[in-house]
Amino acid sequence: MNLIKNVAACLLMAAGLISTAGAQADEAQIRKTLQERLPRLGKIDDVTKAPMPGLYEIRVGTDLFYSDADGNYLIHGMLIDTKGQKNLTEARQEKLLAIDFNQLPLKDAFTIVRGNGKRKIAIFEDPNCGYCKRFERDLLKVDNVTVHMFLYPILGPDSTDKSRNIWCAADKGAAWLDWMVRDKAAPRATCDSAAVTRNVEFGKKYKISGTPTLIMANGTRVPGAITAADLEKLLAEAK
Question: Which residue from 75, 102, 158, 193 puts its CA 20 to 30 A from 64's CA?
Answer without folding.
Answer: 102
